[in-house]
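Lay summary. Proteins are chains of building blocks that fold into shapes, and those shapes determine what they do. In this project we predict the shape from the chain. Here is one chain we studied, written as its sequence of building blocks.
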Amino acid sequence: MGGPGDPPAGTPEGAPSGGEDEYRSVVFDESFVRAARLQEFSAQERMGDHTRAVRRRPGLHRTLSRQLLILVVLIAVAFGTAIYMGLRSPYQPPAVKRPEPLRMTVTPLAPTGRVPGSRSVSDLYAHSPAAELRVGAGGINLPPARRTSHFSDSQVMAALVTAKDYLVESALDPDVLTGGSPRDVRLLIDPEQYAQFDQSFARPEADGRHAATGWLVRFDPARTVLADKRVRTEGTLRIVETDKNTLEVTSDHTFVYALRGAENTASDASDASAKGADDEQARASLFTVRRELHFRFDRDDLRMHRAEVLTSTTQAGPLACAAESASHLRPLLAGQKAKAGGPAGTDPYATGGATPLCGSLAASAQPSLSAS
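And here is the predicted shape, written in a compact code that computers can read:
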């Protein structure tokens, strides 16, 4: 049965289903009405003194233009405020610390008598304080790598490993010890220190800034050879966070070398003498070096596996006080002696500050063998 208004026989086939479709093209939806530029006044409004039946509404593009203008102004104000606050802010990022020149001290320790020697290197070590020391890098132990306030465990470990690598390359590498290329040591320092490093080897001076022996341990190959490449080592590494961008490592190690005279070794004059060139070359003696190094690391250094070397303090003996030690260390060998200098009995195995200028090597720091 058809609904009200429907033909009794129903809607003919193909005809519209209702009267609404006949007027669909002329019926305006709500969005169309809202978008109209002209709007009729209400009946109440027409009762007033209006002379017109309609009013004009503002165009959509004008409204959008005004909104866009306000948005641009707000963005400009916000951007200007950000720039102003950035310039006025008291919390500026910390300035990058430029690497400082390395400050170095090399102190000779003169023996009080003749340097003990033996044809057996093992006997030398067995009868000296070095008997308890480990061999090579095994004596450079890393402390636990614990995170700090601003550095992770891995970053702390990176600083410690770099410091250890520097010690190995600069004090244990046989090629470096015998006057070879210091290239591997150079690669471990901050590039800002390259100029100082290069000058220290091209024109070494005992001025506290440009001694090659302030950067590493090396002997004059014309005078000295290694009797044993297995250097004895003992010491400590300490690490601290100095600020949110910097770690610092302090190393304190003793290195003991077994040495013999080279074939063309000559006797020292005035303050040092030898029992005989042949005997000197045949017998080995021990040479002890105490090194304290201070390293600094920023985040770039940690990433690039390098360090800034701040200070280097070296005590070495047996050495003659007058011996030139800026370019190479020139040890007194078995049977030789020199005038004692400085305070009596400086022991490189003991902790404490370095002795300025020259010191006396304690008898207890040498092998307890007869020098004869």
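What the prediction tells us: The two ends are 139 Å apart (CA to CA).
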